[in-house]
Amino acid sequence: MTRRITVRVPATTANLGSGFDCVGMAFDWYDELTVEVLDEPGLEVAVTGEGAHQVPRGERHLVVQSIRTGLAAFGGEAPGLRLTAHNTIPHSRGLGSSAAAIAAGLTLAWGISRPGEPIDRSAITYLAHEAEGHPDNAGAAVWGGAILAWARDGKVSLVQLPLPEGFRAVAFVPDFESKTDDARAVLPDSVTRADAVNQAIAAAVLPLALTKRPDLLFDATFDRLHQQYRAPMMPPSYDLMLRLRSAGVPAAISGAGPTVIAVGLDEQLAGVDSVDATGFAVRHMRPSGGVELS
Questions:
Q1: Residue 158 pLDDT level (bands cut at 50, 70, 90)
Q2: Is the pLDDT of residue 1 over 60?
């Protein structure tokens, strides 16, 4: 008998400037994927939407790999699989498309292995971090909202950060891509003491700014660890980010870029419309919940 399971998984941003590799946030922008478990061996993959012309259709598909990982971890079996994915999250733009694929695959595996049981989000977060290497995007995709996450000694720790009512974001998405590995490769092994101190101050303030003091978001999204070094890879994005910040908007490069993201309440985002964003697709977003299974 064919079993059908569907997940919806959100786009995410990481870093938010100073929260490098540890702060993530999920938004109301989703990929939807359905898997059918077949009695006969075999694999079928159908993809529509973003990345449909790029992603593999076999075992190398990231969602399929994640389903296999999850089945092994959760004790499930699936003789045959038919995966249908409709993607709306842009690929290689710093909006967590890889984390979404991994979280979706692991959650589908949970649905196959433990039908009717509530999602074990902690287990999925750990496996997603193991696969992706960064707990910020993975944690936000699984849990939703804003999160502070870190990994140490084989354990992933995560704190959810309750955002104030009215919190929103604006994404500025260019038509060019940036690979995470390439963006990480340009980062230096050391920074100046002044940059380290300024980054520590901003990162310490960021959770407070996200939860209780949004008026501090501009200072809290200041970064000296990664964005300036990645600027030559994405000049239009870096320039737009600087112009937004010049207008008083808390703006940062989203993840590894090249999308630019601005966050806050209406008063923090008041200057967005005054900045020319020609060449970027603009999307207004709200924080969302994490991956959903049905």
A1: very high
A2: no
SS (H, E, C) the chain: CCEEEEEEEEEEEEECCCEEEEEEEEEEEEEEEEEEEECCCEEEEEEEECCCCCCCCCCCCHHHHHHHHHHHHHCCCCCEEEEEEEECCCCCCCCCHHHHHHHHHHHHHHHHHCCCCCCCHHHHHHHHHHHHCCHHHHHHHHHECEEEEEEECCEEEEEEECCCCCCEEEEEEECCCCCHHHHHHCCCCCCCHHHHHHHHHHHHHHHHHHHCCHHHHHHHCCCCCCHHHHHHHCHHHHHHHHHHHHCCCCEEECCCCCCEEEEECCCCCCCHHHCCCCCEEEEEECECECCEEC
In terms of Cα–Cα distance, which of 142, 178, 175, 181 is closest to 254? 178
Q: What angle do CA 62, 57, 117 make, to 5 degrees?
A: 50
pLDDT, tens digit (0-9, with 9 covering 90-100), for 55-105: 999 999 999 999 999 999 999 999 999 999 999 999 999 999 999 999 999
Tokens encoding 91: 């690929």
Q: Tokens for 95? A: 């909006």
What's the maximum distance between 2 C-alpha atoms anywhere in the chain?
Answer: 63
Query: Per-residue pLDDT tens for 21-49?
Result: 999 999 999 999 999 999 899 999 999 99
As a whole number, mean pLDDT of residues 161-174 equals 98
Q: Which two tokens stand for residue 20?
A: 């490098």
Q: What is the rounded radius of gyration, in angstroms, for the C-alpha atoms of the chain?
A: 19
Task: Give me the half-sphere count of Cα atoms (radius 13 Å) on the Cβ side of residue 70.
Answer: 29
Block residue for tokens 């193991």 = 130
In sequence order, what are the beta bridge partners of 285? Answer: 169
What is the side-by-side strand order in the sheet with 251-253?
A: 251-253, 260-264, 168-174, 280-285
Residue 153 burial (C-beta neighbours within 10 Å; 0-12, 13-18, 19+) = exposed
